[in-house]
Q: What sequence folds into this?
């Protein structure tokens, strides 16, 4: 009884461990009292070390593991949302009708400032124009000839092998005409910008009616949240009904942006259609070849995999009646079937 | 089964010239069948999207004269 009460009172001071408690627990009817005390110690030790380890790891992560941002979010630019592009799927080609519309938009809107100087006229043939259309378009432009006998350079109409002419003679002229901002060449712009198609589409359609309160827009710049730094030299270009599509598609701003983005993806990757098709063919053939190679491996290894090893002891005892299995068992050998 | 294998063996493998011819002709035939089959699947997946599906709208009525670059240049 005395032991009981001392035990009960000692519970209040659970941390302390007097000899009386120890005696009491030892004399209690349970046999696990001693180990319970030890496990209490173990638990405390384990918990504290775990806490220490977790704490040091989290402290280290807090100090050194977090991503560092050299720029503010405004300088980084708003990340574009993911749009459900059809032509970026692995089994889909470009929609060439959309490419044609996109080129229409490019010629009427973008080409005033932006070049696609890595695209020759011949690229249009067989993907969004007939030969006659491409030739007619090339002949609208004038190109320098090679020097003639007097060393003079003359002008000639463009040919299919010529590359698209930029709207400005050089970068300096482009800067001078655009308030100091250089309109980038758009041939590879989808590859050259983070976010690709999503970014270009978001940029083209992402101009707000007016900059949000608190945003600082320098004079001569326009506010676009998707542009790194939010101040972009290009004002909003695409308005509903800006162009008249030849196929009658309603020319909303987002339709034009979608078409021109698909066109710019084509200029960046004109080989994409063929590349995807070839990729599927390669996958199909290598699947067959892989299956063949697995079969050949199994065929060649069949003799090795199915052979059985047996062990004959060097000093075989006198032969006893019965099977070899029983003899092995008697001498302590085991044989797996 | 063995009879069939025997027939194949005597028909194609026994004589070296026949064996070689079988291999070469088989390679070409396999490639043609595989290519046209996979192109068929690809075109059916992408029906209406490729240039060859829409070019009839833009070809002039003169016929196939301006068709020259349309198929050889699909890079």
A:
């Amino acid at each position: 009884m005395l032991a009981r009460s001392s035990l009960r009172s000692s519970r209040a001071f659970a941390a302390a461990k007097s000899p009386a408690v120890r005696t009491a627990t030892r004399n209690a009817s349970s046999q696990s009292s001693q180990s319970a005390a030890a496990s209490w110690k173990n638990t405390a030790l384990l918990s504290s070390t775990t806490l220490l380890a977790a704490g040091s790891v989290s402290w280290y992560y807090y100090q050194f593991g977090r991503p560092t941002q050299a720029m503010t979010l405004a300088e980084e630019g708003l990340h574009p949302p993911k749009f459900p592009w059809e032509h970026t799927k692995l089994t889909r080609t470009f929609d060439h009708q959309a490419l044609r519309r996109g080129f229409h938009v490019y010629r009427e809107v973008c080409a005033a400032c932006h070049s696609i100087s890595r695209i020759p006229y011949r690229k249009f043939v067989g993907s969004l124009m007939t030969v006659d259309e491409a030739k007619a378009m090339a002949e609208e432009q004038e190109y320098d000839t090679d020097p003639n006998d007097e060393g003079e350079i003359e002008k000639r109409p463009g040919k299919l092998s010529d590359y698209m002419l930029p709207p400005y003679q050089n970068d300096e002229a482009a800067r001078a005409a655009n308030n100091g901002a250089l309109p980038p060449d758009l041939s590879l712009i989808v590859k050259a910008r983070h976010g690709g198609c999503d970014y270009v589409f978001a940029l083209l359609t992402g101009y707000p009616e007016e900059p949000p309160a608190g945003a600082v827009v320098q004079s001569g710049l326009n506010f676009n949240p998707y542009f790194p730094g939010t101040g972009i030299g290009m004002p909003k270009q695409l308005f509903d009904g800006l162009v008249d599509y030849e196929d009658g598609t309603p020319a909303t701003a987002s339709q034009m942006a979608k078409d021109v983005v698909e066109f710019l993806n084509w200029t960046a990757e004109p080989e994409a259609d063929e590349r995807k098709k070839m990729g599927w063919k390669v996958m199909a053939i290598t699947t067959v070849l892989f299956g063949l190679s697995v079969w050949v491996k199994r065929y060649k290894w069949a003799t090795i995999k199915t052979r059985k090893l047996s062990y004959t002891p060097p000093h075989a005892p006198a032969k006893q009646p019965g099977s070899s299995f029983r003899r092995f068992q008697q001498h302590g050998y085991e044989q797996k079937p | 089964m063995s009879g069939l294998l025997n027939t194949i063996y005597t028909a194609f493998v026994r004589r070296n010239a026949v064996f070689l011819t079988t291999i070469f002709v088989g390679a070409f035939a396999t490639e043609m069948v595989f290519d046209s089959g996979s192109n068929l699947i690809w075109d059916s997946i992408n029906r209406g999207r490729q240039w060859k599906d829409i070019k009839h709208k833009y070809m002039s009525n003169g016929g196939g004269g301006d068709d020259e670059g349309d198929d050889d240049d699909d890079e």
Observations:
- Chain B touches chain A through 27 residues (CB under 8 Å).
- The mean pLDDT of chain B is 83.
